[in-house]
């Protein structure tokens, strides 16, 4: 078996592809079935297309299921505060006074921004399974603690801790995905990962409504909003405890692959990206990577997407309840359908992006859709029309999150730089979260 280094060396020598096809029929690929995952054989490739296709399918089933579950829980845990707000927490903790609610929202993003890059520098050294599992349990305990707070200050502290522990999951997951797949395999998979987990955001309000109906004994346990945090926190802690069994490591540490499969997994990326074998970047190298002007541009794109996503996530129930005049129960129910629409359309656009190997036209089209949706919400009067605008706004903003991240990963050839790129973009996105959490001010709410 040839080593990845040997494969990479062979790739540098020009080889007559016609001669290869004549001398080895196994290397011949029909032009009718060539696509992004069954591409023409690269020079120096010492495995068949059937082997690669089988490996990719095996990796898909091992990489994504648990990542989607825990990321879905993270989205649910960071946004369930909006469901608790209209379920009575705003009154019990007096969050309507001044900017208390906005403060409780934005403190999450301070730790979230500060700890993303350090987490991605640690994840390779400690291993994805144990590091991510620790983070999941820790933020689950933070959510559980929110079910027992008696003041908005205590709620704010729990939110700050939640941001610290959730910081490493998303960039870590993007880093893992970028380490397993070729350039034009990533957009569809990052979008699938993000949108599958987005189901929790879509149906989270309905779940929260059901939990808010729980009443136990007397005192604080009769306040339904507390059970949103208690139950969801317990679920997250349990998920963190079983995560080491299901989370996947990086290719060089993967135990579910045999030696042949590990070789193919690493060599096909070297062939695709002409990248070097992975070597941990030093702190100085990491800082130099952060100063790349292209990374700054990607990060600004992600900042815009993140600010829009978070503003809608945190204030959507309030917009439906106070802005459009729907009842509490109907506001929670109507919060879900726009996310189903966003998932379907986002996966479709991601497939188009990978199929035709285009990135920026898709991102621009989704941005225009979001702008149109937000303008409809702002200027139209009938609640039904404004609700339609919510569909467009949520699709346009949510779809650009995985699209922008895939863009950054696809344009990063150096494997060592991928983790830094993912963490840096999402760290800047945390600043978008601060912006999004302060866009809707209490004094701007419609007079009831």
From TrEMBL:
Segments for region (Disordered): 1-51
Major facilitator superfamily (MFS) profile domain ranges (all copies): 63-448
Bilayer-spanning residue ranges: 63-87, 99-118, 130-149, 161-181, 193-214, 226-248, 295-315, 335-353, 360-379, 385-407, 419-440
UniProt name for this protein: Major facilitator superfamily (MFS) profile domain-containing protein
Pfam family, one: MFS_1
Record bears the keyword Transcription regulation: no
Keywords, comma-separated and alphabetical: Membrane, Transmembrane, Transmembrane helix, Transport
